[in-house]
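dumping this here so i dont lose it again. seq + smiles for 2-acetamido-2-deoxy-beta-D-glucopyranose
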Amino acid sequence: MKKIMNGNLVVLIAVILVSHSWMITNIEGHAYLGKEKVTRLHFYFHDTLNGDHPTTVPVAYPIGTVISPSNLAPSNAVYVADDPLTDGPDPKSTVVGHAQGFYVFEMQDKVVLIFVMDIGFTSGEFNGSSITLFSRNPVLETDREMAVVGGRGKFRLARGFAKLHTYSFNLTGAGAVVEYDVTVFHYEI
Ligand SMILES: *[C@@H]1O[C@H](CO)[C@@H](O)[C@H](O)[C@H]1NC(C)=O
Ligand SMILES: *[C@@H]1O[C@H](CO)[C@@H](O)[C@H](O)[C@H]1NC(C)=O
């Protein structure tokens, strides 16, 4: 009987030791993720609200709002987007990924989007990986900045910032073409 209890004690201590070493492994998770590094990403984002092939559509807006070509961006409307990302400003240039998510138009005192998107890449070194943006986006300012709050794949645990520059903007025409220059801190996986 005593022997069995001692045996249980050994098992218990072994479990504690194993779980303890498991915890240590996780504390040193940085080593597991590899060295931190910085990557700069450069691409163009095409957001089209109008025409035969809009990439962004309104899904919710206040009662009484009429969405029409002359009122494509009413305040408090929610838009769902699947926007192509390309390597050049021309919409026909090579697609390198997609921005999928949604934004809310907010116009209390100035036009601002609340922007929530997964920016996923489909070519090059980061094919299959994505960064996550969640930020305020004052779209009428030609230059602005958004926060990178996370990522997937090679961008796991990413953080950083995206500098945006409006290349062209015509709500009733081709929509917006925005140049993105993103600095991402992530790990060598
Ligand atoms: C990106 O990855 C997918 C899935 O692995 C693959 O099918 C595709 O060919 C890749 N694209 C490029 C351009 O490398
Ligand atoms: C915006 O696009 C529309 C439709 O293509 C066009 O008629 C209009 O002239 C454009 N506006 C500007 C400022 O380029």
